[in-house]
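Q: A reviewer asked whether we had any structural model of the full assembly, not just the individual parts. We don't, so I'm hoping you can provide one. Inputs are below.
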Amino acid sequence: MKRRNVLVGAMAAMVSACDKVSETSVFRSLVDGAQNWHRGLHRSLGFGRIEMAPEYTKSDISPFFRGNGSRDVDTDAYRASEAEGFANWQLAVTGLVDKDLSLSLADIHALPQRTQITRHDCVEGWSAIGQWTGPQLSEVLDQAGVKDGARYVVFHCADTLGGSKYYESIDLDDAYHPQTIIAHELNGEPLPVLNGAPLRMRIERQLGYKQAKYLTGIELVDSLKPIAGGEGGYWEDRAGYQWYAGI
Ligand SMILES: Nc1nc2c(c(=O)[nH]1)N[C@H]1C(S)=C(S)[C@@H](COP(=O)(O)O)O[C@H]1N2
Ligand SMILES: [Mo]
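A: Here is a predicted structure for the entire assembly that you could use as a starting point for your response.
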């Protein structure tokens, strides 16, 4: 991580120091070469975890995507929201951002969309393949503007499980990964209540418990310690599940 920042910093300094030269194609190819070299190094040392999760075809989609953990949100507010097709749902973006956001479903629909067919693996020993659609988390982060010093993205959820609010978190590498999306559709239909309506995260290189359902808030933080049990997620706090749940 340090090493990457030093490299990127050095490159940025080089670019700003050589504004005129930067127009020349020789300089561009030098920079591009350095970037490619750097990306290769990055990959070989496993720093950025930029690999993609496997994607599948429509014929692989599981006939039924089971629900697990909370399968509904047992509050009057949620029932009322469901009755309106979640038209009043608000997704708050807060914390270490330049500008707090409050996004409606319409706002989420208006962003560029990504559709991906992936396999969900639950630690309890089942898997399902589903097609998810929604904007990349990076679109929302770019809109809010992530402040220097932000290191994690915390996902707040509407449901309470065993007396505590469900929540999860990831680092910025996963947050900006192209397959990290805020899904509002499963298999071409609005997300069912069972699977987290109206919004849930898909973080495709990690296990099922990271895929926060009933998403109400996205918070940028510099440390996970002050949040709930301090381990970065509901199951991490309770059962010692790994915070980085790589598949
Ligand atoms: N808000 C919330 N998100 C959650 C859970 C939960 O109980 N509440 N369970 C997690 C677990 S353990 C799994 S395997 C998946 C299940 O997603 P599904 O219900 O769409 O199968 O959601 C994850 N996200
Ligand atoms: Mo799970």
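A: Points you may want to mention in the reply: Residues 68, 122-124, 208-209 surround molybdenum atom (ligand 2) (CB under 6 Å). The chain has seven helices and eleven strands.
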